[in-house]
Amino acid sequence: MRSRTRSLLVAALISLTALAGCSRATESPAPQQAATGPAAELRLGYFPNITHAPALIGDAKGFFAEELGATKLTTQQFNAGPDEVSALLGGSLDAGFIGSSPAINAFAKSNGQAIRLIAGSTSGGAQLVTTPDITAPEQLKGKIIATPQLGNTQDVALKKWLKENGLEIGEGPDRVTVQNLDNPRTLDLYRSGEIAGGWLPEPWSSRLVDAGAHVLVDEKTLWPGGQFPTTVLIVRTEFLQQHPETVEALLRGEQKAIDFAQNNQAEAKTVTNDAIKEFTGSSLSPAVLDRAFSELSFSSDPLAATFPQLSKDSVTAGAQQKEVDLNGFVDLTALNNVRQAAGLPAVDAAGLDEQG
To answer: Which positions make up the signal peptide (predicted)?
Structure first.
């Protein structure tokens, strides 16, 4: 009954958002939930992608379970962010590793109530890869380019880039068709010549390169210092308020996974590849694995200062009608406790931890 009530409340919030847009100026914040001690269960989502390597490593190496102790860990795998958002807003998931654009979308859909950004995970590792004959943006006219799902991080990045380069999205010889496909399907259709490429996360951009594609745009070149949040960690606000020690335990496990990936790269590649094989049925070749890892960096810093620009990009791409009010989106209290205990510097919320 409690889960059903939560689902109904979330549905009501989503309906209100549709009527009122993304502005939260007249809305009252949800009442603070009282802490009730460690959770009996933590339901965690992530993708079987190298961009989610800290999640894969944290689960496979037992770092999450070790830190969570008596709290049961239940995991669920997703192909792209919008499906994971639905699970979070529907109350069937407590926390999730997810792309930056779906994280913003989840916050907007719930009128700034249902989720909080609590950590980073991965930067980089997203590219527009195409057939080798395409060497300039205008050569994409009349072509089909894939992204993992409508409104996901790579879908937003591609559509923003197309608009900035004066390219219309749609069907026909003078437009670029953007097709939303599961990543394995994108690889199959590229090999068969039915699509010209895709804006994809690792390891899928490297898998297309291995199949003969080349890099037309590396997303790192579009950001200052080459740093942008490919994967972050979000949690349901209610869960964070009721079980702060469980959230902190999850973050300790993530930090262990990040440290492992940074300090034991050869083993980290093996652990990640084995996890991907378990979930997808196929492992990555050594060349794809090496290339994919070289495109990424791992850190618990969510790069909060990039999110106002990411919100603007969602509008440019048509994923949002107006910029999202990000006040209250970020809560780094638990993360900075974990980082301090690990001897790491605190990270900045860029003012997004303040309620409007």
So the answer is: 1-20
Burial of residue 273 (CB within 10 Å: 0-12, 13-18, 19+) is buried
**Rg value, the chain, Cα:** 20
**What's this model's pTM, rounded to 2 decimal places?**
0.85
Please name which of 146, 277, 252, 241 lies closest in space to residue 200, comparing C-alpha atoms: 146
Q: Is 304:346 a contact under the CB 8 Å cutoff?
A: no
The single-letter code of the amino acid at 192 is S
Taking the C-alpha atoms of residue 115 and residue 132, their distance in angstroms, rounded to an integer, is: 41
Query: Strand order in 95-98's β-sheet?
Result: 72-77, 41-46, 95-98, 229-236, 115-124, 296-298
CA gap 15, 110 in Å, rounded: 9
Per-residue pLDDT tens digits for 83-114: 899 999 999 999 999 999 899 999 999 999 99
End-to-end CA distance of the chain: 32
Mind listing the pLDDT tens digit for each residue in 177-233? 999 999 899 999 999 999 999 999 999 999 999 999 999 999 999 998 899 999 999
Residue 330 parent element (H or E): none
CATH architecture of 126-226: 3-Layer(aba) Sandwich (3.40)
Q: Domain locations in the chain?
A: 2-20+35-124+227-341, 126-226
Record: fold of 2-20+35-124+227-341? D-Maltodextrin-Binding Protein; domain 2 (3.40.190)
Quote the CA–CA distance of 55 and 30 in Å, as a whole number: 30
